[in-house]
Amino acid sequence: MTNNSFSGSKYVRRGEANHDAEFSCSVQELRSLMELRGEEAVARIQESYSEVNGLCARLRTSPVDGLDGKSEDIDRRKEVFGLNIIPPKKPKTFLQLVWEALQDVTLIILEVAAIISLGLSFYHPPDAERQNCGSAAGGVDDESEAEAGWIEGAAILLSVVCVVLVTAFNDWSKEKQFRGLQNRIEQEQKFTVVRGGQVIQIKVSEIVVGDIAQVKYGDLLPADGVLIQGNDLKIDESSLTGESDHVKKNLDKDPMLLSGTHVMEGSGKMVVTAVGVNSQSGIIFTLLGAGDEGDNEDKKDKKKEEHKRKDSKGKKSKFSRIESYFT
């Protein structure tokens, strides 16, 4: 087993540049590592960490005994590397569901027809025309029908309101049931890890970077990791790559294990390198809209920086023109 002390070595010198003095790997470094595949990933591991044991040493974990399981260490890893939770989108409010239900083409046609019907029912022609029409028709029934003409338009609007409210309530109840079922599954799902030299099962949400996880046939990987030991391990990565062929994983050719993929054959052990929104499945969920707020903030900051650069360039150009004019 590789010694965990790296004083005076290249690992510590690299780690000093990171924001985290306790760990010699930053979140961005691990994310960039997990974006590599195949021989390129093997070359990066050999170049940066010498071997997988070197990566474990920089993460302050043992490839055999795993983490010590102390609450202080677990809390520190959650603070530095994040939780193994992908925050869901904010649920839609009832008013938003009502607005979506109103976008139906059939309901829009009914709404327009109801408004036109109400407008015609309240429209009265001039007095001269009314007298001529009254002398020609000479009936009191026409006047009563004209006065009750608004009922048809109001009935159409009332039916549209009923349909919209029922549709919005059904969507709201379905979304609520789905979120409750999803929370129940996340709380009950467990995974096998090694802590303090003992094999235990913990909740998926409690997995942290540096955990030594055991993978076997039928498992759904809950986090990204690098293979430490494998036995005819084959992974189905179709959920991420779309390829139906099973990918063989070993230390020499492709040791990268990704969250959201299924173990189809064999078994092995991996060191967890990315969890939650920093994992590959978390990055995909973020791109699909789970992290819109953070992305918007980044875009706003970039736009502000671009505006500042443009303003500074404009001021410099104006100053140079004035200076050239006087010279």
From TrEMBL:
Q: Keyword set for this entry?
A: ATP-binding, Calcium, Calcium transport, Ion transport, Magnesium, Membrane, Metal-binding, Nucleotide-binding, Translocase, Transmembrane, Transmembrane helix, Transport
One GO cellular component, as annotated: plasma membrane
Q: What class of enzyme is it?
A: translocase
- Using the UniProt annotation, give all residue ranges assigned to the region (Disordered): 290-327
Its annotated compartments are:
Endomembrane system
Principal localisation:
membrane
UniProt biased composition (Basic residues): 305-319
Which PANTHER family does this UniProt record tie to the protein? CALCIUM-TRANSPORTING ATPASE (PTHR24093:SF523), CATION TRANSPORTING ATPASE (PTHR24093)
Name this protein carries in UniProt: P-type Ca(2+) transporter
Q: What is the taxonomic lineage of the source species?
A: Eukaryota, Metazoa, Chordata, Craniata, Vertebrata
